[in-house]
């Protein structure tokens, strides 16, 4: 029975009508990636590089970072790897980076905004990534993008670093986690190779609810129809330019969330290792047509509760 389970974990997430969705893991270290592959992951859709800065009390230099990225690439043996550049700020604080205290850190110098102001952080990270990319496929992703200008500036900096190292070009993507980015997806898609939707932040910024607020966090519902409408819009924008769209926020690892995201046209779901087998099994029990119908209905209700009620149409997966 265990062998049977192990075999089924490795089966692709193909719907009953033959549509396959890529299933990836959110992991930060090579040893976790190995476990994710055993659990059925087909790659790493989100490597959060903050951990390199958080696990120690000094800033990791280019060499430290290169070793970490190279170890991850090698652990994956050619499977896809999306590495996200440093996403510090908001709830993610790094005392030794000596960042200014802000009154509204979630609306402050976070993610790509920090990268654009701190070449001393961006350049060593990009150099380490390009060097690691010589050992296997790496895709570079920027967090907290809210404008086209940010993308153009970051791409120019990338090109300078790449040329200095004489490294091959790598695919470049952005997180879609700010409503402006979702609304401008058709424009942004002209300038990048892929999107990955961060439903945690997209929910917080769409509903204007601090995702950690002691009283309001419950209102931060990623199943809210407003969030799903932004996902729909993001997919439509990406399609205009033939780009793929993933989701690496928490919604991708929830059964109903995954079902809706696939129904909305998302190509890849990246989640915690522990969610992989349930999501794969669920998707394998439904047709894409069913999931598209579910998604259409979820876009046409008033509340997150009504979206949740639609989940009754899904066939449960036995534990
Ligand atoms: C997100 O915002 O959904 C996301 C994946 O990024 P993080 O949770 O690291 O902010
Ligand atoms: Mg985020």
Tell me what you see in this structure:
It is a single chain. The protein is an alpha/beta fold and 319 residues long. 45% of the residues lie in helices and 12% in strands. It contains 15 helices and nine strands. It has an eight-stranded parallel beta barrel with strand order 2-3-4-5-6-7-8-9, surrounded by four helices. β2, α2 and β3 form a beta-alpha-beta unit. α6 packs across α7. It is globular, with a radius of gyration of 19 Å. It starts with a helix and ends in a 9-residue tail after the last helix. The model has no long low-confidence stretch (mean pLDDT 95). The site of phosphoenolpyruvate has 9 residues, from α10.
Secondary structure layout plus pairing:
Elements: H1 2-9, E1 13-14, E2 20-26, H2 30-38, E3 44-48, H3 50-54, H4 62-76, E4 81-84, H5 112-117, H6 119-132, E5 139-142, H7 148-165, E6 172-176, H8 179-183, H9 185-188, E7 194-197, H10 199-207, H11 225-240, E8 244-247, H12 255-263, E9 268-271, H13 276-284, H14 288-298, H15 304-310
Bound molecules: phosphoenolpyruvate and magnesium ion (MG).
Largest pleated sheet? 8 strands, parallel, barrel
The Rg value, from CA coordinates, equals 19 Å
Q: Give the helix level as a range of percent.
A: 40-55%
Q: Structural class of the helices, strands and pairings?
A: alpha/beta
Mean pLDDT: 95
Largest sheet, spatial ordering of strands: 2-3-4-5-6-7-8-9
* Each distinct ligand: phosphoenolpyruvate, magnesium ion
Count of helical stretches: 15
C-alpha termini separation: 14 Å
- The low-pLDDT segments are none
Strand content: 5-15%
Q: What sort of overall outline do the alpha carbons produce when their principal axes are compared?
A: globular
Q: Using DSSP, what is the number of strands?
A: 9
Order of helices and strands: HEEHEHHEHHEHEHHEHHEHEHHH
Keywords: Cytoplasm, Kinase, Magnesium, Metal-binding, Phosphoprotein, Phosphotransferase system, Sugar transport, Transferase, Transport
Family: Belongs to the PEP-utilizing enzyme family.
Subcellular location: Cytoplasm
Organism: Variovorax ginsengisoli
């Amino acid at each position: 029975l265990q062998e049977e389970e192990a075999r089924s974990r490795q089966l692709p997430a193909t719907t009953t009508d033959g549509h396959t969705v890529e299933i990836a893991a959110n992991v930060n270290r090579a040893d976790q990636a190995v476990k994710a592959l055993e659990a059925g992951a087909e790659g790493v859709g989100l490597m959060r590089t903050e951990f390199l800065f958080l696990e120690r009390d000094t800033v990791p230099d280019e060499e430290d970072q290169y070793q970490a990225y190279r170890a991850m690439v090698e652990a994956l043996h050619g499977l896809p790897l999306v590495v996200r550049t440093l996403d510090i700020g908001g709830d993610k604080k790094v005392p030794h980076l000596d960042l200014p205290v802000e009154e509204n850190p979630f609306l402050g110098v976070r993610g790509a905004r920090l990268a654009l102001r701190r070449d001393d952080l961006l350049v060593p990270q990009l150099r380490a990534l390009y060097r690691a990319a010589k050992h296997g496929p790496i895709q570079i992703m920027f967090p907290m993008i809210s404008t086209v200008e940010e993308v153009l500036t970051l791409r120019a900096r990338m090109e300078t670093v790449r040329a200095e190292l004489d490294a091959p070009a790598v695919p470049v993507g952005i997180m879609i986690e700010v409503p402006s980015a979702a609304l401008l997806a058709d424009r942004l898609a002209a300038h990048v190779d892929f999107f990955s939707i961060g439903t945690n932040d997209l929910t917080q910024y769409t509903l204007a609810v601090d995702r950690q607020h002691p009283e309001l966090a419950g209102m931060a519902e990623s199943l809210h129809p407003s969030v799903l409408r932004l996902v729909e819009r993001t997919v439509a924008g990406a399609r205009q330019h033939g780009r793929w769209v993933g989701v690496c926020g928490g919604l991708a690892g929830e059964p109903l969330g995954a079902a809706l995201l696939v129904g909305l046209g998302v190509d890849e779901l990246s989640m915690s290792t522990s969610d992989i087998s349930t999501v794969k099994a669920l998707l394998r029990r439904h047709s894409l047509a069913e999931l598209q119908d579910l998604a259409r209905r979820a876009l046409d209700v008033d509340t997150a509760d009504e979206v949740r009620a639609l989940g009754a149409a899904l066939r449960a997966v036995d534990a």
